[in-house]
Amino acid sequence: MCQYCNVENESSRLDYVYNPKKGRREFILDSLATAGGLAAAMSLPSQAFANMEMPEDEVVRIGYLPITDASALLVAHAMGFFEDEGLKTEKPTLIRGWSPLIEGFAAKKFNLVHFLKPIPVWMRYNNKFPIKITGWAHTNGSGLVVGKHTGIEEFSQLGGKQIAVPYWYSMHNIVLQMALKNAGLEPVIQDQKDPLKPNQVNLQIMPPPDMPPALAAKKIDAFIVAEPFNAAGELLAGGKMLRFTGDIWKNHPCCVICMHDDDVDKKKEWSQKVMNAVVRGALYAQEHKEEVAHMLSREGKKYLPMKANVVLKAMTDYSVEHYTKPAAIEHADWGVGRIDFNPYPYPSATKFIVDQLKETLVTGDITFLKDLDTDFVVKDLVNYEYVKNAMDKFDAWKKVPGVNPNDPLNREEVFVL
After folding, report:
1. Which cellular components does GO assign to this protein (predicted)?
2. Distance between CA 182 and CA 190 in Å, rounded?
């Protein structure tokens, strides 16, 4: 009997969600986020990071988490798009938590990664780490899943509940807290055992792979995270989708493509080739979602340790008819997908995230945010050149969602609670 799903013979189906023997070390590494692990990952002085040297070769070394956010990078590798640009690549390295991925990138083990968008803000302006955003990994692709045992059908019913988020510096934490406040609720961060007021919602950091089993075991009431863990929560852990984040913030970014300053500034030809391959990967993922779902899955090229039906749901199941109670999709007229792939990093979205991050409850020292000039961040944190050149080269503006044909380099942020 499966301890999480209460269904016989389901343990093999949940192997990718929770495996004490295989996942013990990964869990410990990622759980450091709850105790300042991000700070520990970046504890070396900035000069020490500056003195670290990249290998002399120009091999593309990708680090990624097992989430669909990494699709553009993984598809580019699987389809040989890097090789088409004359680049050599190592097999992408699967990392099971944000803290160790940050550590690997900081130690220059990886020169191409995807991070939750607020993470580079923290790295560059709090820790002075030379990181650049060079594109978006995807748009949409996240949601808030509640346990069926809760009976919750709207945000206002989340009072007194426990919700897991993947990281304090995440789009998920920002959007969730905005939605809770809009419903008259107060986000708090406290020990799970401490009593909550009826209008309070307790937030906690939890590694994405642990969220579905925690929901099934009723250790939490809800979680907000990237795919395919929402799909896993629905299919395997007795969860139901309360709201897709892409139905709140239209075509929002979540994970972004990141590179080292040295590469972006000094290896211009190499950086352009890298982004050419990444943009091709994004285009392919957008136009072939079913094929890509199988490609990434356990039954395909095994980039993600999830079964194909879970990944397929995560990439394609966005039907109003499937999500009527609760009404997880309220803006079907927006024409967004469950996950989409537009790699251009719109300045307006960066500005929105930085402004809202200043109003978002997180743990740790956030002094650096107080005087952070948002307009400066928009220009300083992001390199727009390489991704724009690649978008032009492959005529991507006509192939990806969310582009204004009259002004493709700019857009208006649409956020409706």
Report:
1. endomembrane system
2. 21
Return the amino acid letter for 123: M
What is the enclosing helix (H) or strand (E) of 410?
Answer: none
CATH class name, domain 142-251: alpha beta
Dig out the tokens for 402 from the structure.
């969310």
| Separation CA 317–CA 31 (nearest Å) | 30
Q: Encode the chain (417 residues) as per-residue pLDDT tens digits.
A: 232 232 222 222 333 332 333 333 232 223 333 333 444 444 443 444 444 455 667 999 999 999 999 999 999 999 999 999 999 999 999 998 888 999 999 999 999 999 999 999 999 999 999 999 999 999 999 999 999 999 999 999 999 999 999 999 999 999 999 999 999 999 999 999 999 999 999 999 998 989 999 999 999 999 999 999 999 999 999 999 999 999 999 999 999 999 999 999 999 999 999 999 999 999 999 999 999 999 999 999 999 999 999 999 999 999 999 999 899 999 999 999 999 999 999 999 999 999 999 999 999 889 999 999 999 999 999 999 999 999 999 999 999 999 999 999 999 999 999
CATH of the domain spanning 20-139+253-306+338-398, picked from 3.30.70.20, 2.60.120.650, 1.10.3720.10, 3.40.190.10: 3.40.190.10
Contact call for residues 345 and 136 (beta carbons, < 8 A): yes
